[in-house]
Amino acid sequence: MGGVDVLSFSKSQVAWLRAGIILAALLLISALHYLTPPEVVHWHYIYQRLFYLPVIFAALSFGWRGGLATAIFAWIFYFPPFLVSWQNLPHYALSQYLEVIVFCLAGILTGVMADRDRRQREMLRERTEELSRVYAELQENFERMKRAERLYAVGQLSAGLAHEIRNPLASIAGAVGMLRRNRLSEERRQECLDIIEKEQERLQRLLTSFLDFARPRPPRYRSVSVDELLEAVLDLSAHAVGSAPIEMRKQAAPNLPPLECDPEQLKQVLLNLVINAIQAMPQGGELSVSARLANGRLLIEVRDQGCGIDPEHLEKIFDPFFTTKENGTGLGLSVAHQIVEQHGGVLSARANPEGGMTFALLLPLDRRGRS
Asked: Which CATH class is domain 222-369?
């Protein structure tokens, strides 16, 4: 309340100050009329035009009513010297009467325009305040939505992690239960131990992948050759081909500039995509890894001729714990997506018209191209 009182008092002070300036101007101009001999017509003509200044100022400050009132007061202050001039110069009287009408018109018209301008400013201020209020509400709603989305994501992650852990734990519990019976053959005992070891390794991979997703380390950037990076990825993934007749091809555009990235993280992303492509082609086919420039960025594509992904699953493939594989953790593509985002890039997937999938990485060549 104190702030409002101070604001009102300040406006009142300004209004009184402007009224005082207008009155002082009227008195000063009138005094000049009184002190100037009637015979000096040109000076009276100049003084009379000076009355427009307080009239216009009053109209701008107080609207058309203030302009009209000041015009009337100007005429009242000028009326005594006007009578003297009229007595000495009768032909001058008519122009003075007309001048009074012009005073009033100037005050009214200027005041009307000033009032309209004030109304527009007030309307603009109200609209601005309303927009600010709406924007604040939108920001608050957006923050609530983000909090709800984070909680939902945590819930989804927890449910996915619990689901993925439950299966290997059930297998381990079953194997332990069988071992406790102490009446198993050596072959069955070894089978149970193999199950425990296999499921333990599966849990270890799952937790490692989850930690990579939940707490990704920041990239360690250095400049690398794109061609050498692709060559290293294909060499590392060659062991996954097995006996399937898969032809692996590398297609790198000539004279590609070096890429500023974390080579280990990018190898992890490309290895994940290449191995997924190999696993999607158990009957064989062609797998190509290409690199070229696209709009000043580096475009790397991993293209296969595998079984592809159902359209209803395509939007979920980067979600944590979503997988179409029997033994998959559902975190490989999520981690890859996160790494690419940390590099300021985009990882996307599309189905090929002739079958199979293409995964595309669009990366900035250096840190300056990162948003």
From this structure: alpha beta
